[in-house]
Amino acid sequence: MTKVSMTVNGKAVSRETEGRTLLVQFLRDGMGLTGTHVGCDTSQCGACVVHVDGVPVKSCTVFAADVAGGHVTTIEGMANADGTMGRLQQAFQDCHGLQCGFCTPGMVMSAAALLAVNPTPTEAEIRAGLEGNICRCTGYHNIVRAVMQASGQASAAVAAE
């Protein structure tokens, strides 16, 4: 067992864990942050995307010990301070950018990373930025609309329909 310490959603945490513990397991099982989903376990689906030091990573392929000392943001950390949904989460709801919701946390985290580097992406840039996140329900159209709305381009997203 190894003691792993990191900052998760702005709070310092330390847990005893096995060296082989994946970050997704550390978050879900060790901390109860079940918003990060385990989909494929092979880095294909993107349901487990979190931010590590501001960079989106698929947490099913990273050992928790490798993130020691880092700053992790999960979907739970995307909410406003008062617990209400953040701008991007609200846009996903408003634009119905989800159906079953399984891929939604990873989509939101990948979209947030995209908007951090490109605040007003085009539809093509959004689709490229979400590559690596699989949704089996929505057809992606409403997900793209949600990202456009969150970026302040709601009128462009509606006009494109």
From TrEMBL:
One of its GO terms (molecular function) is oxidoreductase activity. InterPro entries: 2Fe-2S-bd, 2Fe-2S-bd_dom_sf, 2Fe-2S_ferredoxin-like_sf, 2Fe-2S_ferredoxin-type, Beta-grasp_dom_sf, Diverse_Oxidoreductases. The keyword Cytoplasm does not apply. It comes from the Bacteria. Keywords: 2Fe-2S, Iron, Iron-sulfur, Metal-binding, Oxidoreductase. The keyword Cell membrane does not apply. Residues 2-78 form the 2Fe-2S ferredoxin-type domain. This is Carbon monoxide dehydrogenase. It comes from Neogemmobacter tilapiae.
